[in-house]
Design goal:
Layout (H helix, E strand, L loop, with lengths): L4 E6 L5 H12 L3 E3 H5 L9 H12 L4 E4 L6 H5 L4 E5 L3 H13 L18 H8 L1 H15 L4 E5 L2 H16 L1
Parallel strand pairs: 1-3, 1-4, 2-3, 4-5
Length: about 170
């Protein structure tokens, strides 16, 4: 069965947004980017309750791809997802991609609020470095609490290719 609700998480620079757009095109499922509603003008954080309310509107839809982290609201998405894709690429690769994105961003990816240009700040680098330590325990809890959700960890491009192949097999059958 083809998944209809796909949660995509992972370290910044892991390829979440790029893959979300690719899935959107292949599956014709609406894609939503959390950073687009978590921040407002000039990287100011959205009112958190407004952020949760907007996210809940997305989750209540019959089909969605939601790209982004916000670990405090993982459960809101995870409990409704068919699958959760965890982009767990090596830190060094993610650091490189974040740096590269400052100078070149894929033109099809519109995952930021207005007036939020790509930037690198120290807190982003710290967030990236400690990502696994914060997320792994949370994912373990969610996996136990919601066993029907398929958690798929993608650590490299070969994992992505294998996932895409399995997805094509689901779509064909």
């Amino acid at each position: 069965m083809t998944p209809k609700r796909i949660m995509i998480i992972g370290r910044p620079g892991g390829g979440k947004s790029t893959f979300a757009i690719k899935l959107h095109r292949e599956l014709n499922i609406p894609v939503f980017h959390l950073d687009k509603i978590f921040y407002t003008d000039h990287w100011a954080q959205q009112n958190y309750q407004t952020f949760l309310d907007l996210q809940q509107q997305w989750v209540n839809q019959p089909k969605w791809i939601i790209d982004g982290n916000s670990t405090k609201s993982y459960e809101l998405r995870y409990c409704m997802a068919d699958i959760c894709l965890y982009f767990n690429f090596p830190r060094h690769l993610c650091f490189w991609r974040v740096l590269k994105r400052v100078f070149y961003k894929h033109p099809d990816i519109d995952d930021r609020a207005e007036n939020c240009p790509e930037t690198i700040k120290w807190n982003l680098l710290e967030y990236m470095w400690g990502f696994d330590e914060r997320v792994t325990p949370l994912l373990n809890q969610l996996r136990i609490k919601y066993p029907a959700v398929q958690l798929i960890e993608l650590r490299n491009n070969n994992d992505i290719v294998r996932f895409e192949q399995s997805l094509k097999e689901c779509v064909i059958s």
